[in-house]
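TL;DR need structure tokens for one chain.
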Amino acid sequence: MQIVKIREKVRKDGQLKINIPNLESGDKEIIVIIEDKNVDKYNFARLSGRLQWQGDAVKEQRKLRNEW
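>> reply
TL;DR here they are.
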């Protein structure tokens, strides 16, 4: 098994051309993992200060841990 990490551009028509150097001819099983770096992470900043906690936070936390 060989792991190769390459970076290529996807064309506007959705096609991707992958060149893997030094790959022997013959039947191969190829697995492609696509990691989209352009996906925005959810910004929780707008929720800051919106929740009102009633009670003792440490006491509630211990209660939850004891349920495990």
